[in-house]
Structures are given as C-alpha cells and as structure tokens.
Amino acid sequence: MVGQDSLTDPQQRSETRTEVADFIASQRLDTDSVSWISPTGVGESREELLQIPAETAGLTDQSACRIGDIGCGAGVLTAALAERYQSSKVLGIEFAAGAYDVAQGRFVDSENVVVVGGDAERVLPELRPLDVIYAINMVQDTADPLRMIRALAEALSEDGILILTVPDETATELFPEFAGWDEKRELPYMEMTDITVDGEQTSWHQYAFPEDRLKTVFEQRGLSVVRQDTLSADAAGLLYPMELLDDDERREWAESVVEEQRANPQAGPEIPLYVLETES
Ligand SMILES: C[S@@+](CC[C@H](N)C(=O)[O-])C[C@H]1O[C@@H](n2cnc3c(N)ncnc32)[C@H](O)[C@@H]1O
C-alpha cells in the first residue's frame, strides 16, 4: 500500500497529473495509439454518450441548450457534441495547459464551441447553469473527487442531467502494489511515483469508485440516478500505464486486450456509466 503523504498536498498532485494529460492529448491529436481508457475512444460508446441528451432530456439538433464537456482533454467528445447538437452551445473545460491548447485549437473557427482553460471547480460557477454536463473519466483525476462531484451537481440547470463515467475497482485489484486508501474521502486510489512521462520525472494518482460508496456520495450531493450502465472503453489506453510500469507480462496482456477489441469493438474494458439528475 502506498502511504498517505502524497495526499496532503492536493495542489501539488493536480500539477503533476497535468503532465500525463498533456502528453496523451498531444499524442491523441495525430493518432489513437496513445489514448485514455475512455469510452470516447470507442465509436459505439461515443455514439451512446451522444444519444443520452436526446433520449433522457429530449434534446434535438434544434435545441438551444448549454452542454458542458468537463475535463474535455483533446476535445474528441466536444467536437462530436457540437456536430450533433448544432443549435446548442458546447463548453469544454480543461485544466492541463497542453491538452487545453490541443482542444482549443480544434475550435478556433467554431460558432458553437468554447473551450475554457482552468480548474473545473473554479470555472463551473461562472458557466452555470448547464443543461447537460458530461464528466467523462475526469473525476478520478481530480485532487478531491467528492468536491468535484458537488461542483458538477451545483452547475446543473433545474432539469439538467449529469453524465458521468468513472473507473470502478478493476485497476486497484489488478495492481494491488500501487493501491492505497484515502481515509478522509473513503475511496481507494492508485498511485505510481517516480514515473517518466515524455522525458520528465513525475507521479500519477487516480481514484477508484466502488459502486456503493459512489451511490452514497450521489445521495449526499442531492443527485439521483436515472440510468446506470456500462460502456466499452478504449483498450489502447491500457498500453500507456504498461509502458510506465515497464512490465513485459502485463504489457503482453494489454496488447492482447487491444487485439481483441480491434476484432470486436465491444470487447474492451468496461467502464461504469451513470446518468444523474438533481433531486427535486
Ligand atoms: C482521463 S482524461 C479524459 C479526457 C476526456 N474526457 C475523455 O474521456 O477522452 C481526464 C481529463 O480531465 C482533465 N482534468 C483533471 N482535473 C481537472 C480539473 N480539475 N478541471 C478541469 N479538467 C481536469 C485532465 O487534464 C484530463 O485531460
């Protein structure tokens, strides 16, 4: 188990994590060979995500709504949302400077997308109310995921929906040597120290979310679940942590999962999906 020391300075952890986000965003613009373990990297999962506002909140391409893509990374989902919901305004928020540059660069000529750089917790109160909020695989990377879920809930419009994907405990079970427990937040996490990203020495920290604990958090934040599901995530995202670990056996395993998903896009890792609304 990793000790608690590195949890004492959330700001420091935020800063180090942006290096990983920047690196992946810069690679992702040209190729999908380096990617997050995210449903936005799988066409069918992305389509499912895009459909949720239409299915759950009745949005059409004529609706003039405000849609947030929080922790938008390189802007893959942001672009798809802007194309699908053309009369809506799509607001991306991204914390890591390099990833922000990549996302922002995509939309310089766009009429319905704005990408804002900064910490979502600080930026969200300025952009609210939002009718649809996507937080796709981002909450786990924040310094305090419980505070971030509150900020997301508070940014929703009265009938707004929050679309959230977060990792379950698969990773902490797969890599017990990097697993730790955050007593204050009652959440498990993964932490790797002394890794090299793009030639720089850094560390990596990510929370995991047991279903029961997450449901308690939702309740405390005044959120109720309107849909619970799973989506296939991009298996290519597994290759990157294996590179960091320099572990041949696990790399081979990850490569076999990627191969399998190439043959069958639904065969990748599964990531939990929650669609939430504020309790009235
Ligand atoms: C795992 S990536 C997922 C990117 C994208 N949503 C996807 O699924 O393809 C998480 C992203 O959230 C961003 N992020 C983390 N903490 C953030 C915060 N406090 N405010 C805004 N963005 C944040 C990271 O910089 C990173 O780009």
CATH class: Alpha Beta
The domain tally reads 1
- The class by helix and strand makeup works out as alpha/beta
Instruction: Let me know the average pLDDT.
Output: 86
> Which range best describes the helical content: under 10%, 10-25%, 25-40%, 40-55%, 55-70% or over 70%?
40-55%
User: Would you identify the CATH architecture?
Assistant: 3-Layer(aba) Sandwich
Computed Rg: 18 Å
Low-confidence stretches: 1-16
Shape descriptor reads globular
Spatial gap, N to C terminus: 41 Å
| Element pattern in H and E | HHEHEHEHEHEHEEEHEHHE
Contiguous helical run count:
10
Please provide the count of β strands.
10
Largest sheet, order of strands side by side? 3-2-1-4-5-10-9
**Largest sheet properties:** 7 strands, mixed
Beta-strand fraction estimate: 25-35%
Keywords: Methyltransferase, Transferase, Ubiquinone
Organism: Halohasta litchfieldiae
Pfam family, one: Methyltransf_23
GO biological process, one term: methylation
